[in-house]
Amino acid sequence: MSWAADSGTLAWNVDGTVEVWDTAGARRVFAAEGHKRARSAALSPDGGRIALCGSDGLIQVWSVPEQRRIGLDLDPDLDPDPDPALSVDPEECDGGGRLAFAPDGRLLAVRLESGLRVIDTAAGASSWFSESGLTEFAFSADSTLIGALKRDSLALWRTGLPLPGATESDGVPPVPPVFTLDLPNETPSQLALDTEQGKLRYLRADERTVATVDIGALREPQWSPEPLETEFASPDGRYAVRARGDGDAVRFDLYDLRTDAHLATLPALARSSAGPGDGQEPPTGGFSPDGRLFAYGPSPWEHGDGPVRVRVFDTDRRRALAQYELAGESLSPDVLAPFLVDGKATVYAVNRTGLWELASGRQLADVSSHPTLAVAPDASLAVLGDGSVLALPDGKPVRRLTATGDILAARFSPDGRTLATTDRTGLVTVWNGTAQRRVGVLSPAQGPAPSSRSSPVLALGYSSDSGTFATGDHLGRVRLWDLASLSPLGEPLPTPGDSVREVAFSSNGATLRTQGNHTPVRTHALDPAALVASLCTSLGGGPTRTEWEDHIPDVPYRSTCG
Q: Dihedrals φ, ψ of 416, to 5°?
């Protein structure tokens, strides 16, 4: 049985035929007589659509007023053969809570044994949320989030990133959750999402206690299905270069990170729509360790008929310094690392074929792994994605790091005394500055984190004094670490759950900037005084004398928000 409260319609199963009744007029308005013994059904909130899952494992969506089946492409002349993207194991149709429309009536969620499939019934697209063992799910009132419960955890996903035709068997990567929380021994139920208040609620196992979880950080008003403006921050925390598409060109602007003042406009790059991308992928860019130079080039997914151009800009003197033209599609860079060597600009670049020194055009090494590159502050060593450690400037191999698969990200500390690398297991390995000795292995899922699940770390950043470093992973978790003890500093910072692609400290270490693929740059205050002031403001001040005496009478009263 399914009830559409907005329209006063009711659907029920009568001997395998689902009927929809107008309760106000006491009349039948729909009967799915052609569907094979429906085992579960769901009405859209306005009663205009009904989803059915039958004994044959086929999920169908029907227009109730028009008495016709709706194809994913909304073609009224659609061939009656079902779309295979809506076919599931017949056993998946048994039981309640398998199908549900979002409040907007457009999205349909299907709970399967291996996760959730969310289907955009208007656009003909679907997203796959892989999470086995789900017991129930719920949409937020604005249909932007969907949450699901398991016996010992919960997870949230954004619904605004559809993957056309994505199914579990297509090999399409599932959409990652934007929030997860372990709930050991809680057996949660009756999930409810309140995005207006930034709260998530569920009933605990005793069926008397309602738990509330703060998800306010997920209320990101500028979440975009398409990648937003790209920002490159200098390691020393002085500068940022912001790149944005402008028709057939990509514009680059230099800003002072301390004041956010615009300092200069860099020469633009022509953008090509050729290649496997759609012309919207972010460009490649990188600063020298001291922030003096910025090198930038096209996205590695873009290429045209002409040479690939990589430009170098002197940020201190606000002038273009060099331009390199590289022929051939294979030379589109994935990573750029500029340096001043003997007063001349030198740029090391990695793409999917090799490590290059761009000033001379020499290939220093072959690359057959993930296109990762980290260069020591003194430009003496380079680390590649396969773990190779090369001596620069000649590219001679000197050793190989022992890693689990490809290295996804690597970064030397500003003082050159340590190197951090990440791999697909979600672990961060810290080495000494010559990459000869392993110092420690860290897991961003350890410690007082909201979820113990691991996720690849994609972003690494050191403070200017090399005492603290930050990690950002694919699940959107950002953590701070003390380098001396290799231990986490508190809980993960609040984020909108977007996959983190860059983290950067300010020059004085008082703030951390984070950037995701679909959310604007966020600035996190790290200075204790600033954090206390922010907390006092959000709470409207500290406890009054009466409140203090009611809760902690044994401690003398003092003002906590001066």
A: 75, 10
Amino acid 274: pLDDT = 42
Helix (H, G, I), strand (E, B) or coil at 407: coil
CA atoms of 446 and 321, how far apart (whole Å)? 45
pTM over 0.90: no
Which of these, 24, 29, 27, 60, lies nearest to 42 by C-alpha position?
60
Provide the CA 448 distance to its chain's centre, in angstroms.
21
DSSP string, 70-84: EPTT--TT--SSPPG
138 membership: H or E segment, kind and range: strand 136-139
The residues, any chain, with a CB within 8 Å of residue 553's CB and separated by 6 or more, are none
DSSP 472-511: EETTS-EEEEETTTTEE-SSPBP--SPPEEEEEE-TTSSE
Q: How far apart are CA 161 and CA 128, in angstroms?
A: 10
Sequence letter at residue 375:
V
Tokens coding 102: 């979002």
Residue matched to tokens 């270069």: 241
Q: How far apart are CA 338 and CA 347, in angstroms?
A: 4
As a whole number of angstroms, the distance between CA 307 and CA 284 comes to: 16
Please, which residues have CB within 8 angstroms of residue 132's CB and are 6 or more apart in sequence? Answer: 113, 114, 115
3-state secondary structure at position 279:
coil
Please name the helix (run of DSSP H) or strand (run of DSSP E) that holds residue 332, with its range, or none. Answer: none
* pLDDT one-digit tens code per residue, 333-354: 888 999 988 888 899 998 878 8
Beta bridge partners of 338: 347
Domains assigned to the chain:
2-218 (2.130.10.10), 225-368 (2.40.128), 370-526 (2.130.10.10), 528-562 (no CATH)
* DSSP summary character for residue 74: -
Residue 51's CB is within 10 A of a number of other CB atoms, namely 28
- The neighbour count for residue 11, using CB atoms within 10 Å, is 24
Between the ranges 42-56, 80-94, 341-355, 529-543, where is the mean pLDDT highest? 341-355
Which residue from 304, 252, 297 is spatially nearest to 277, judged by alpha carbons?
304
143 near 107, Cβ under 8 Å? yes
Stated as kind and residue range, the H or E segment containing 443 is: none
Q: What is the pLDDT of residue 75?
A: 35
Greatest distance between any 2 Cα atoms in the chain: 88
φ and ψ at residue 549, rounded to 5 degrees: -65, -30
Tens of pLDDT, residue by residue over 151-173, are 988 988 888 754 433 444 444 45
